Amino acid sequence: MSNMEAIAHDPLAALQRMGLSSAEAEVYAFLVRRSPATGYRVAQALGRPVGAVYKALESLEEKGAAYMSEEEGNRVARAAPPAELIARLRRRLEDDALALDALADEAEDEEPDDLLYRLRDRDGALERARSLIAGARTFVLTNICPALVPELGPDLEQAARRVPVAAKVFEPAPLRGVEVVADPRGVQAVENGPGQWLLLVADGRVFLHALFSHDGSALLSAHWSANPLLNWSIYSGVCSHMSLSSLRPLIERGESAAELQKDLRRLRPFESSASPGKSLLISRYRSPSPSKRGRPRR
Questions:
Q1: What phi and psi, each to the nearest 5 degrees, are found at residue 219?
Q2: In this structure, are 169 and 42 located in the same domain?
Q3: Quick one: DSSP state of residue 11?
Q4: Structural domain that includes position 48
Q5: What's the pTM?
């Protein structure tokens, strides 16, 4: 089992993501296996203070995750069946999602700004990447390391049905409808690097750059921005480096100029002499040419 699969199948971590504390998650997991049990028995088994365990049991009862009973002066607990708890949580999540949908209807269109935003959460970074991919209007460019392909590959394939999508990869990645460019350095570039990374450009308008741990399970650093100067620079760099990565093996093999031109044509949909970032900078800062200023007054 990979580290990512281990995280996905860690019940204690899942319970904490559902809103239980660390103590509550441990107590609930114990009760699932050994119900009914007194708080004293649970405390002994887990090595936790009795008072802390009874406090966790009271909280679990309030959350519908445990049932309490009195037996010969002792409080006895039984875990709510996991299927029952899951159904309860699922209904609550669906209700909360409906409430958020109502709020989304009131939201104004997202206005771009020049700020650079930090992402601290792994799931949040991936969800932001999915949002940028889904919102692309003209093209998507990405440098994507192997650990992230299974998670974002379906989103790239879905986007490729609407707009051109190109991905530079470090090992074979069958992405339907996507122009896949193999980095000539191969997976060794990732193994020798600081971790697994993702660089995503949507339209030359907004980018996301993230660095994950070597197994992809933890987010180390990530930022996104619609800053036009940063986007102009990053788009130009990604597009140029992708073309170089595609051409380099052909040049080393001594392919003809016709073959080189043919290879370049497949990346032409991603080239732009006036990307959104550059165009916005021109509209902001370039002074009108003398011919457009009119004749000077005498």
A1: -85, 130
A2: no
A3: H
A4: 9-82
A5: 0.70
CATH number of the domain within which 173 lies: 3.30.870.10
Q: Which two tokens stand for residue 26?
A: 């441990």
Contact present, 229 and 281 (Cβ < 8 Å): yes
Half-sphere CA count of 24, side-chain side, radius 13 A: 21
Tokens linked to 297: 């007054």
| Beta-strand pair 206-212/219-225 | antiparallel
**Cα→Cα distances 76→29, 57, 119, 293, Å:** 16, 10, 44, 86
pLDDT digits (tens, 9 = 90+) for 221-268: 999 999 999 999 999 999 998 988 889 889 889 989 999 898 888 888
Residue 71 lies in a domain: yes
Fill in the amino acid letter for 77: A
* Same-domain check for residues 138 and 199: yes
- Distance, in Å, from the CA atom of 207 to the CA atom of 275, rounded to the nearest integer, reads 13
Domain for residue 169, yes or no? yes
Classify residue 103: in a domain, yes or no: no
Cβ-based neighbours of 25, under 8 Å, separated by 6 or more: 11, 12, 15, 16
